[in-house]
Fold:
Amino acid sequence: MADRRYLVAVFGALLIVGLLVLPVPYVKQSPGPIFNTIGTFDDKELIAISGTETYAPDGSLGLVTVTERGGPFGILLLGEALLGWVNPDVAIVPRSALYPEELSEEQARTRNRVAFGNSQGNAISAALGHLGLPIVTSVLVSGVADDGPSVGLFEVGDQITGVQGAGVTTTEELVKKVRANSPGTEIEFDVIRQGEPRKIKVTSQAANDDPNAASVGIFISNDVQAEFEIDFALDSIGGPSAGLMFALGIIDELTPGNLTKGEEVAGTGTVTPAGEVGPIGGLWQKLAAASNQDVEIFLLPADNCDDVNRSEFRGMPLVPVKSVTEAVNYLRKWAMDGADSLPRCTGTEIG
Structure:
């Protein structure tokens, strides 16, 4: 009888261990590293500006990130998911809510790199627009989907100047003009490749998110040119939410004084070329990452206020912003009048 109980206990333990190492269709989102956009990364200036007068800022404008595991980024085990479910700083999200099932790791990383590259271009446009400095924008092909209709037609580095005879200078314009067509339509692009103009015709397919909208299976990014050089040392992360902090970093380096008054500021938010700040995902994990640092205030998109349901996160004031200009004005007001002078997220309204 004792031997039977022993065998049952051993079998039960093995069964539990076996269940804990089963892969599950979820993605684990954890607080990621913070990068100072007015500091250095791998011994290089994270934002390097040359060819114009710059100023040495002090303090930190922290770009907060989220680390993902599972889905297209490796296997997530049941045991890891269970531990994540009981950790308030970790989110366990169904893969289907973030990535299509057929999306491979390389495709996911490419998509994130493209979004990250767009955030840099948009940040340059937004920052220089705020400062009243001229820019020239164009659309570049940054990748071609392996299973899309553009394979063998487009090449990385192609500059797209027009769609169906209408000129385009931003990714937003190009996407709008392409999606306005029905799937199966032959779409003609005006392209410059290695300085030579050419026309490329692609028979479109249905977009992944809308069966009635056309797609041609290319990744595109905004190429923004200023009258001086702006280079980014950081390319190891992905996603679009770095735009706000990149824009503030550029502005801080191009203007006298310090936006941070020498203190630690952190934030997140997508940015359009016009400087509008949009909502992001993974906010709770980004707040947790910032709260582990000596962050004085945290800038976040006004549209994300309802996601936090409090005006502070572990003693860190949460300041909602709708544009890059508003963020700059709030930082300057904070430098003069302190954090109590700024609006806070309340969870239901801004006030």
In short: The two ends are 69 Å apart (CA to CA). The chain has two domains: 26-103+229-341, 136-224. The longest helix spans residues 105-131. Confidence is low (pLDDT under 50) at residues 6-20.
